[in-house]
Design goal:
It holds the Pfam family MLTR_LBD. Helices cover 43% and strands 13% of the residues. By secondary structure, it is of the alpha+beta class. α9 runs antiparallel to α10. It is elongated.
């Protein structure tokens, strides 16, 4: 994709006028217009400013630079690189701190990177093939052979998951994510209520042999990442809504063998970061 086309599509996708983008980037509407028409060639610093003003993910910032003929700025480093031992340690600490409550780390596509031992409460009874790497968190949440049969409020929970994936797609119109959304929609069926009626407060009501768990979720991302893959990592924690759920999860943890670890894991991710942000 040429730079003029890439800039124009990203600006329109974010519903910004040329004037709004120009004000954000500290330039003029005329200059933005010339860049989008190809009448002006952008300098590297201008491309970076435009990418920041559009609040593009690091992957798209690299793509915009490449389309303008410049080398990517943000690296992609394997998470198992020795230089990123501090990042791995931070992830492990956060996951361990959430025990006895389930917590996972997923990548851009929702593929599982790692999980804590408590995650086994979600994977019990699933079809083995769904737990073969790469394990996709979206798929196991809604697949008929995954979590779905054990979710007491499946209709509401499924819409919550699909709406969350749609929000990700709005920010990152990726073909694989779009195909995944279409697949999951097939499992759920047509929407029966008005869009947005449920809001964000949809707990997961999960049936287990010990009783029903009521779990809410929280998402954590790396806030100051300068590496593409770590910027795309998300940590999702499942927290108890009530004391009964907390007690059941604590009981499971106490009965867990001391050497028990994460029930499954996906391929290693990549990246580097200096902090995290909860949202």
């Amino acid at each position: 994709m040429s730079f003029p086309q890439a800039l124009r599509e990203r600006r329109r996708h974010r519903r910004l006028s040329q004037l709004e983008l120009a004000l954000r980037a500290g330039t003029t509407q005329r200059h933005v217009s010339f860049l989008e028409s190809g009448r002006s060639e952008p300098g590297r610093a201008m491309v970076v400013r435009l990418a920041e003003s559009l609040e593009l993910p690091l992957r798209e910032r690299n793509d915009l630079l490449t389309s303008a003929g410049y080398a990517p700025v943000y690296p992609r480093t394997s998470l198992d690189d020795p230089a990123l031992s501090a990042v791995r340690t931070a992830i492990e600490h956060v996951l361990d701190a959430h025990d006895p409550y389930p917590a996972i780390v997923v990548d851009r596509h929702g593929d599982l990177v790692t999980a804590n031992a408590a995650f086994d409460v979600l994977t019990e009874g699933m079809a083995p093939e769904l737990l073969e790497p790469p394990v996709n968190a979206y798929r196991i949440a809604l697949h008929p052979d995954g979590l779905a049969p054990r979710v007491a409020n499946f209709a509401d929970w499924a819409r919550h998951v699909l709406d969350g994936l749609r929000n990700v797609l709005d920010r990152d119109p990726d073909e694989r994510l779009a195909a995944l959304h279409a697949e999951l929609t097939g499992y759920v069926g047509p929407r029966t209520g008005p869009p947005g009626a449920l809001g964000f407060a949809v707990p997961l009501q999960l049936r287990t042999p010990d009783g029903e768990l009521r779990l809410m979720t929280t998402m954590t991302t790396f806030a100051t990442a300068t590496d593409v893959t770590v910027a795309e990592l998300r940590l999702e924690a499942f927290l108890p809504v009530d004391e009964a759920t907390a007690a059941l999860l604590a009981k499971r943890a106490a009965a867990r063998p001391p050497t028990a670890g994460p029930p499954t894991a996906g391929p290693p991710a990549a990246g580097a970061s200096a902090g995290v942000r909860d949202r």
